[in-house]
Design goal:
Shape: globular
Number of strands: 15
Radius of gyration: 22 Å
Strand content: 15-25%
Largest sheet: 7 strands, mixed
Strand order of the largest sheet: 2-1-3-4-5-6-7
Length: 436
C-alpha cells in the first residue's frame, strides 16, 4: 500500500500566452496556499505556474513524473482552455487529475464532464486538500472530504456542497519559496506608459481572504459567503520580511479583495513598512484623514470598484454608493493629490441604454482628472449562484454548455459574444465607443 510519506502532489496554474497575462502576471495565490496545507502534513509537493507555449508538454512531463495526483487551479476565463489541454495530457500519462479554484467550485458537474478530469475540490484548500489525499490513499471515505466531487461510475457524478469558509486561525499561508518570483516583479515595465505608473519593484501580495460586501455580481457571495478573514498578522509580517530580504521587494500590490475591512489591522501592516503600495479600498472608507495618513505611509495609489455611473444600477448591484458620492470622493482625492484607479463594469442584466450611457459619461468625466486612471468598463461576467446570475437567466440567456464555451467569459470578451439580451440601441451605443 502507498504511504503518505512516499507520495508527491503536483499543483499547477496555467495561463494563456497573451500580452494581458504577461502584464498582469501575479503569483498563483491559490496553489501557494494549497502547497502549505500539504507541507504541514509533511507531504512532498511541487507547484508550477506556466504560461502556455509549444514546450508545455515537455514541462508537464518533467514536473508530473511519479506524481500521486496532479491538481489544476481554474478560473472562468481564457486560461481554462490551456488548463483543459494540460489536464488531457497529464491524464494520458496515467495520472490522477483534479481541479480546484473558482470555476471548478461554481461549476463542478460541468467540470467533471471533461473526460480527462477525475475529481473536483470545491472551496478552500484548507478545508479539504489533506483529506482528499487521505481519501485517495484509502484511509477515509469520500463523505469525510468536504466539497469533494468525483466520478463514481460511468456517467455517475457525485457532487457535494461548497464548504463553509475556514476560520481565521485555520488559514494557511503562501509557499513562496517553491516558486521563482522574479517574473512577478520584473515585467519589463509593460505598463510604464500607464497613467500614474509606479516604477518600482512591486510584488502582488495578499494578506486576507474574501470580502464582507454583498455585491450581487461577485463570486465572493457564493464562495466566501461574504465573509472576510485576515491571515495571522505575525505570519504576514514574516512573509513580507522574507520577500524583502530575499527578493529586494520595494513595494506592494495588495490584491486583497477588501484590504481595509479591519482598519486597525490594515494600518498596522502599512505603517510597519511604509513602502510604496497599491491598495483596493471601499469608496466609503475614503476621507481627508484617510488620505493624509495614507500619503504619510507611502500609499501611492488606491484601486476602487465604482462599477457604474447609474444610480439605478448601483442600487441593483448593492454597491452602497451613488454617482454623487463618487464625484465627491474623486474630487477630494484630486485636491489631496492621491492617485486612484477606478474600475467600471457594463452590460449587467437589465442595464438600460440610459444606464450604460451614464457609465460612459462618468468614465469620460472622471478621466479628465490627472490623478485618475480608469480600468474598463469591463464586461460583466456571470458567476453561477449569485443573485445577478439568476437575473441573467430570467432574461433568457442561454447557459454555456461546455467548459470550452465558458472559457470565453472574461472581462475583455466582445459584447457580441456574450449572448446577453442587448437591444439595437445598446449595440449602437457600444459601436459609438468602438466596443463592437
Amino acid at each position: 500500500m502507498v504511504s503518505i510519506e512516499n507520495i508527491k502532489i503536483v499543483l499547477i496554474n496555467i495561463e494563456s500566452n497573451t500580452e494581458r497575462v504577461k502584464r498582469q502576471f501575479s503569483p498563483p495565490f491559490g496553489i501557494l496556499v494549497a502547497a502549505s496545507v500539504l507541507r504541514k502534513q509533511n507531504i512532498d509537493v511541487s507547484i508550477k505556474h506556466i504560461i502556455e507555449d509549444d514546450k508545455i508538454e515537455n514541462t508537464l512531463f518533467s514536473i508530473c513524473q511519479g506524481a500521486f495526483a496532479v491538481g489544476f487551479s481554474t478560473m472562468t476565463s481564457s486560461n481554462l482552455l490551456p488548463t483543459i489541454r494540460a489536464t488531457k495530457y497529464v491524464k494520458s500519462l496515467g495520472l490522477y487529475t483534479f481541479w480546484g479554484g473558482i470555476h471548478a467550485t461554481l461549476l463542478p458537474e460541468l467540470s467533471l464532464k471533461e473526460p480527462s478530469l477525475d475529481a473536483v475540490l470545491r472551496g478552500e484548500a484548507e478545508s479539504n486538500l489533506y483529506q482528499f489525499v487521505l481519501w485517495r490513499l484509502g484511509k477515509i471515505d469520500s463523505n469525510s472530504v468536504k466539497g469533494l466531487c468525483f466520478k463514481k461510475n460511468i456517467g455517475d457524478i457525485i457532487v457535494s456542497d461548497i464548504p463553509l469558509p475556514v476560520a481565521e486561525n485555520e488559514l494557511s499561508f503562501h509557499s513562496f519559496d517553491l516558486l521563482d518570483l522574479t517574473a512577478y516583479y520584473e515585467k519589463d515595465n509593460l505598463d510604464s506608459n500607464k497613467k500614474n505608473f509606479i516604477d518600482k519593484k512591486m510584488l502582488p501580495y495578499m494578506t486576507s481572504k474574501g470580502c464582507n460586501k454583498k455585491c450581487t455580481f461577485c463570486y465572493n457571495s457564493v464562495v466566501n459567503k461574504c465573509i472576510w478573514r485576515g491571515y495571522q498578522i505575525d505570519k504576514v509580517f514574516s512573509e513580507m520580511d522574507w520577500l524583502i530580504d530575499n527578493h529586494g521587494i520595494e513595494g506592494w500590490l495588495f490584491y486583497d479583495d477588501n484590504f481595509f475591512v479591519n482598519s486597525n489591522r490594515a494600518w498596522q501592516i502599512i505603517e510597519r513598512y511604509k513602502m510604496s503600495s497599491f491598495i483596493e479600498i471601499d469608496l466609503m472608507k475614503l476621507s481627508t484623514e484617510f488620505i493624509d495618513r495614507a500619503k504619510k505611509a507611502n500609499i501611492d495609489k488606491l484601486f476602487i470598484g465604482i462599477e457604474s455611473g447609474s444610480d439605478e444600477v448601483l442600487k441593483n448591484i448593492k454597491k452602497g454608493i451613488t454617482s454623487k458620492l463618487i464625484r465627491e470622493k474623486v474630487e477630494m482625492c484630486s485636491k489631496h493629490n492621491m492617485n486612484i484607479e477606478l474600475s467600471f463594469m457594463m452590460l449587467f442584466p437589465n442595464e438600460s441604454v440610459d444606464d450604460l450611457r451614464k457609465t460612459f459619461d462618468l468614465v469620460d468625466e472622471l478621466s479628465l482628472y490627472d490623478n485618475v486612471s480608469i480600468a474598463g468598463p469591463k464586461i460583466y461576467n456571470p458567476y453561477p449562484g449569485t443573485s445577478m446570475y439568476n437575473d441573467l437567466l430570467m432574461s433568457g440567456w442561454s447557459v454555456p454548455a461546455t467548459n470550452e464555451e465558458w472559457s470565453k467569459f472574461e472581462r475583455n470578451i466582445s459584447p457580441s459574444e456574450t449572448g446577453f439580451n442587448l437591444t439595437d440601441k445598446h449595440l449602437e451605443l457600444l459601436k459609438s465607443r468602438g466596443l463592437v
